[in-house]
């Protein structure tokens, strides 16, 4: 197995970090790699904000659900879907950017996500670890105020990065046959595979917590997806100039 595949297959979310700063050259490399990600039509519709100010970090950690590692990690990045730059590019060429719609919203969100995954893979290749922080969408308006984020831009998620001070076990993913199909979408045979997968996840949590947590994947998903998820996001995106139609 080559080094790249080995790195990808051994990804773990790291939430505990050593009190060790990240070298400037490593940060530069991480951002360079983020910028090398695929991008729709070469638009590069994202901006990455490095949150250094510790008061801002503390506020963001609270707004994201009191996730202490947001405040404590050596490096905290926020990946934004950014169409403001496209608007400015239109103005430079005496054009008016078309109204931001669902397609351009998806475009910018995907661009930001691809850049983020490149950044995390680069960080892991340099001996660092990290975790995505979707909790910044709990209070996106407040996050925008803190970070001076303008219209046509929104924070997709954050990312904590640092030298790992934790070695969690790797979480087994769904069986490949559940997520990989040939020619057509179908769910034939998925139920039995997922039930078996549930037992593996139960074993994982029992081992990780020494029997304190008994859970399954379907139980987690059903608990989450049976409730509305961040219903404020539609109104927030409208205010930010993302008209989803």
Automatic annotation (TrEMBL):
Family note: Belongs to the flavin oxidoreductase frp family.
Protein name: Oxygen-insensitive NADPH nitroreductase
Keywords of this entry: Flavoprotein, FMN, NADP, Oxidoreductase
Top-level taxonomy: Bacteria, Bacillati, Bacillota, Clostridia, Eubacteriales
Organism: Clostridium estertheticum
GO molecular function, one term: FMN reductase (NADPH) activity
Enzyme type, top EC level: oxidoreductase
All residue ranges annotated as the Nitroreductase domain in the record: 9-163
Gene3D superfamilies, per database record: NADH Oxidase
EC number: 1.5.1.38
